Amino acid sequence: MTAFYIIISFITSALISMLLMPWILCLCKRNGYFDRPNIRKVHKNPVPRLGGVVFMPAAIIGLSASLYAIEDMAETGVIVSISTLVMAAGAFLVYFIGIFDDRFGMKASHKFVIQGISALFLPLCGLLITDLNGILGMHEISIWVGYPLTVLLIMTIVNAINLIDGIDGLASGLCIFILSAYSYVFAKSDFPLIASLDAAIVGSLVVFWCFNVFGKIGHNKIFMGDAGSLFLGYICAYMSIKSLMHPIAPVDCGEEQMLISVTLLLIPVLDVIRVTFQRFLSGRAIFQPDKTHIHHLFMAAGLSMHSTLTCILVLFGLICGINYALWQSHFILPIILLVDVLIYASVITALLHVGQTAAQSSKKSFLLRG
Fold first, then answer.
1. Please, which contacts does 107-115 make with residues 24 or more away whose CB atoms are closer than 8 Å?
2. Which residues contact 266 (CB under 8 A, 6 or more apart)?
3. Is 362 exposed, middle or buried (CB count within 10 Å of its CB: 0-12, 13-18, 19+)?
4. Alpha carbon 67 to chain centroid distance?
5. Cβ-Cβ contacts under 8 Å for 203 (sequence gap 6 or more)
6. Using an 8 Å Cβ cutoff, are 182 and 294 in contact?
7. How far apart are CA 248 and CA 192, in angstroms?
8. Is residue 198 within 8 Å of 207, Cβ to Cβ?
9. Which one of 28, 38, 225, 240 has the minimum C-beta count within 10 Å?
10. 101: pLDDT strictly greater than 70
11. Cβ neighbours of residue 358 under 8 Å, at least 6 residues apart?
12. N-term to C-term CA, the chain
């Protein structure tokens, strides 16, 4: 029956998104709500930027349809945990801050503070990390370490999803796979409410992805904006921590639960950590935007936007496959994580080399023509 609830939630959310997206497009065009090009951005023309506004209402309606099915067919009440209600409050906060930023603009440091407040909601209701399951050789940790670590992790994931939203279909494509995986693992653990919530968000994301990737500029192309990326980041953070609070893996093993979340969020999280340290070491403000994210490096190496999207999604799938194979071969979590970091570092190093070579060739060609 859980599969039925998930399908109902997915389809309902997708249909609502299909109805709302054209209305959002008209609203943006009528009022001039555009993401305008600048030196840091890859698009060359103004594009409507409020596509992510659709995610929350579509998800709520999709989840409501699933809840109606659960109540009607299972003939049992639905118990909503305190952590779920608190997550909803935090999600609403980052969602509305995202809308405000899309509409009026907000300093990155101010958004960071509000993200911190939202991140506090989860550990305050008992949803926090208490076991590292072998990462860095550590297992059970003190609650005094768990609280700040959980807040830091939430803020890292929120910003990771927000900052990787730099080319068409990337953040939404990654989140489709991430939340689909969480929907599956929560369904296997008999948590139909959370599984249906994931499916509802995925339904809305699939519709947005089509508008974002295949839409034509000036017609039906749209960006998600911060309202969408911050909301998705918060949901992904909640799912990653929530999954560690219950035995959701096929085998009741803490390391396997940790591996699922590490694998799903590895690329955006490693990328935001790398970029942050790179800015800090170079003496720049960590909130200062630049073009050093992984998608920028792929494009600097000569790939088109759609080729870059394909490469990063393939890299995501490759890491998932490698991690699964290593786990089945009985490698421990720290070794698997080390392999992941080496893969990511190798890709970044290769991209930097190719990008520098391409830039030097372009400069040489320009001088010869001059």
1. 107/287, 108/287, 108/289, 109/287, 111/226, 111/230, 112/155, 112/159, 112/287, 115/154, 115/155, 115/158, 115/159, 115/230
2. 319, 340, 344
3. exposed
4. 25
5. 9, 10, 11, 12, 13, 14, 17, 58, 62
6. no
7. 12
8. no
9. 38
10. yes
11. 300, 301, 302
12. 69
What's at 16, amino acid-wise? I
Can you tell me the distance from the alpha carbon of 56 to that of 22, in angstroms, rounded to the nearest whole number? Answer: 16
Cα distance between residue 44 and residue 41, in whole Å: 8
Q: Are 260 and 181 in contact (CB under 8 A)?
A: yes
Residue pLDDT, tens place only, 194-237: 999 999 999 999 999 999 999 988 788 999 999 999 999 999 99
Q: Which two tokens stand for residue 350?
A: 């290769």
3 state DSSP class of 223: coil
Q: Which residues contact 167 (CB under 8 A, 6 or more apart)?
A: 42, 295, 299, 305, 308, 309
Indicate the Cα dihedral angle 30, 35, 38, 42, nearest 10°. -130
- For residue 367, give both structure tokens: 């001088």
Residue with the bigger pLDDT between 260 and 124: it is 260
β partners of residue 48: 34
Which sequence spans correspond to the domains of the chain? 2-267
Residues in a beta bridge with 47: 35
Q: What is the pLDDT of residues 68-96, one digit of tens each?
A: 877 655 555 566 667 678 888 899 999 99
Both structure tokens of 73: 């067919």
pLDDT at position 251: 42
Q: Could you tell me which residues are beta bridge partners of residue 131?
A: 140
Residues 311, 298 contacting (CB under 8 angstroms): yes
Tell me the mean pLDDT in the region 305-321.
96
- How far apart (Å, rounded) are the C-alpha atoms in residues 276 and 287? 8
Cα–Cα distance measured from residue 65 to residue 204, given in angstroms and rounded to the nearest whole number: 14
Secondary structure of the chain: what % helix, strand, coil (to 5)?
Answer: 75, 0, 25
35 bridge partner residues: 47
Q: What is the pLDDT of residues 11-42, one digit of tens each?
A: 999 999 999 999 999 999 999 888 887 666 66
The single-letter code of the amino acid at 145 is: V
